[in-house]
Amino acid sequence: MNFEDIFVRNAPGVRETLRTSKVGIAGCGGLGSNIAVSLVRAGIGELIIADFDRVELSNLNRQYYFLEDVGERKTGALKNILLRINPQVKLKTITEELTPENVPNLFSGVEVMIEAFDLAERKKWLIDTWSRHHSSVPLVCGSGVAGYGKNNELKTVRAGNLYVCGDQSSDMKEGLCSSRVAVVANMQANVVIEILMKTAHSNEQR
Fold first, then answer.
1. 54 - beta bridge partners?
2. I need a labelling partner for 29 at 20 to 30 A (CA). Which of 62, 82, 161, 165 fits?
3. HEC profile for 59-91?
4. How far lies 146's CA from each of 25, 45, 166, in Å?
5. More confidently predicted of 168 and 24
6. How does pLDDT run across 106-126, given as a tens digit for each residue?
C-alpha cells in the first residue's frame, strides 16, 4: 500500500511542505483532537500532542474520540486514531500536566505551537509563557467556541506571531456543540497550514 495516495487530492505543495514540518498541540480536547486529525489528514509529518486527562463519556459530543476510548488517556487514544489515518506520521505524546515551567522545553523545536486548552486562565499563561520564551515561533489559539451557529462571528485575529481563532467572546455557559467547536478547530488547523506554506515559500525565494 502506498500511503502517499492519501494526499493525492491535497492542494498543490501542501504535502511536500507539511511532511517535514513539526507542530505542537497543547490540549487534546474538543479543539486539540480535531486539529490533530485535520493536520494528519493534510499530511503533517510530526506532531507533539499533550494532555493529562482521560476520555470521558461527556467528551464524545465534541471531541474526536469513540466509546471504546472512554477511560483511556486522551493522548494514547488520539495517537491510535491518528495512526489509523496515516501510519507514517511521527507522534510524541506528553501525559504530564502542562505548566509555565515545562512548556518551553517540552515543545522546543516546533515550527508552530497550538493552544487548545478549555480554561481561559490556562490560555492566558500559555500565551504569556510562549511570548517570553519562543516569540519567533507562531502561536495559534482558540477563543470563543461556545454555543452554536453564528458563523459570521467567527474570525481570525492576528497580533504579530499570535493568531486567535473564534468569536473572541462567547461564554462557556452557552454550552458546547460539536459543529461550532469543530469549525474553530479547523480554522486553527487551516491557519497552521497557511503559516507553514508561507514560511516555505519565503524560504524558497531567499
1. 73
2. 161
3. HHHCCCCCHHHCCCEHHHHHHHHHHHHCCCCEE
4. 20, 31, 9
5. 24
6. 999 999 999 999 888 999 999
Q: Which residues pair with residue 176 across a beta bridge?
A: 147
Alpha-carbon distance 181 to 126, whole Å? Answer: 20
Nearest Cα to Cα of residue 24 among 40, 46, 43: 46
Please answer whether residues 152 and 73 qualify as being in contact, where contact means their C-beta atoms are separated by less than 8 angstroms.
Answer: no
How many CA within 13 A on the CB side of residue 100? 11
pTM here?
0.96
The whole-number pLDDT of residue 171 equals 74
Find cell 513539526 and name the residue: 22
Q: How confident is the model at residue 143 (pLDDT cuts 50, 70, 90)?
A: very high
**Extended strands (E) in 117-174:** 139-142, 155-159, 162-166
Tell me the three state secondary structure of residue 175.
coil
Fold classification of 3-205 is Rossmann fold (3.40.50)
